[in-house]
Amino acid sequence: MNLPEEYLSNMQDLLKQDFQKYLDCFSVPAFTGLRVNTSKISVEDFLKISPFHLEPVPWCAEGFYCKEEDKPSLHPYYHAGLYYLQEPSAMSPGSYLPIEPDDIVLDGCSAPGGKTTQLACRLTEGLLISNDISSSRQQATLKNIERHGLGNVYVTSTNISKFPNNTFDKILLDAPCSGEGMFRKDPSLVNSWIKRNHEYYRPIQKSLIDSAVPLLKDGGMLMYSTCTFNPHEDEEVIEYALSNYPELTLADMNRHPLFSHGVSGLDKCSRLYPFRLNGEGHFLALLQKKGFSEKTEPIKTASYQNEAVNGFLRLINHDHSRGTIFRIGDSVYYSKHLFDTAGIMTLRSGLLLGTLKKERFEPSQHLAMSLRKDEFAQTVSFSCDDDRVQRYLKGETIYCDDTYDGWVLVCVDGYPLGFAKADGHRLKNKIETGHRKL
Fold first, then answer.
1. What pTM did the predictor assign?
2. Strand order in the sheet with 324-328
3. Cβ-contact 287, 251 below 8 angstroms
4. Hey, which residues does 345 pair with through a beta bridge?
């Protein structure tokens, strides 16, 4: 790989005697990983059915190395949302942000949604606001939360300064950066670095800090992370935060032994180097705001009532009284927590139940993926090697052995893939276009 001389000089100054070890890493292929979606299946149960060759990622309890030749992106379990494909080092920010199950959390730079899905799985009673300034990139985030069946997420696209102050228990800022840590995985980033190095990104990163700190509750925590090695984008940004916001302290994240400490005297920061671990480059720093705040109680109002919606929900064995059903335009949503997004571009407000088309209710792919096999009135499940699974994923009409009438939840080995409309043995495909296997 042809690396810029300026970059090589910077890395030699940073790594000193380890510089050659870093260069040697480029002769080793990048590592592939998957992270189990624990909102659908436990790690233990996934390992029982996994067809892949897996090795644990040491710093992520639900993370595993996998082999590209296993083609995990093509397996039906991927379409069932049982796992997310993620570079192993990129699992570290979500693993080391100490989330409690009922926290209100902001993922401030979330697209394409890898860290969002990781955080949301840990919020069994809380709420995640998944935000990215780019609404086009958030389309990938939407697809990922739908596939994972996550209903505790609002997907937004705005400058995070528009969110109300003192709102979030935890914030993740996986900041845009020069991407030096990903050169081995994605060599095209070298050309991007030549056009836009740390001098371009550093003001953006400091601006994100300025916007995020007021949003944090007293006692709250902010994880700042990048996938670059440059201290100007890493420790310098943390020094900026500590010097400009005296209410912040640098917390000890009890880093994994394979992680290196930060430079410039900021030992509590963590650096992930590819010559020390099986993964790409990353930087982590955990900041805590002084003080203490009470937990935010969930806001609920009277649920929206509609006979077509209520009729369909009677097919579901789930207590929707724990949250609120509400309508925005023709879309009907459900959320345990209501979040005020006035003035904020909002792409998804919790779980999309479906859409109203005149007097008819059409359930969503998001709803199908949020269910468990035993929660729907009529369920058909095929084994993963049944060719009907592949035909269903391609959008084809399929046929089942038993007879059904009306809405059916189609599953692979008991895990939902989407809805179908049954007429006897015939299952008319209702999987949404964006989730079909092309």
1. 0.97
2. 324-328, 331-335, 351-357, 360-363
3. yes
4. 157
Active-site residue identified among 66, 121, 177, 227: 227
Predicted confidence (pLDDT) per residue in 76-119, tens digit: 999 999 999 999 999 999 999 999 999 999 999 999 999 999 99
In three state form, how does the secondary structure of 182-227 look?
HCCCCCHHHHHHHHCCHHHHHHHHHHHHHHHHHHEEEEEEEEEEEC
- DSSP states along 107-163: ETT-TT-HHHHHHHHH-SSSEEEEE-S-TTTHHHHHHHHHHHT--SEEEEES-GGGS
Residue 345 CA to residue 169 CA, distance in Å, equals: 22
Helix (H/G/I), strand (E/B), else coil: 348: strand
SS (H, E, C) 36-77: ECCCCCCHHHHHHHCCCCCEECCCCCCEEEECHHHCHHHCHH
Q: What is the rounded CA–CA span in Å between residue 182 and residue 416?
A: 34
Q: What is the pLDDT of residues 142-183, one digit of tens each?
A: 999 999 999 999 999 999 999 999 999 999 999 999 999 999
227 is catalytic: yes
Domains and CATH numbers, the chain: 90-289 (3.40.50.150), 297-370 (no CATH), 373-438 (2.30.130.60)
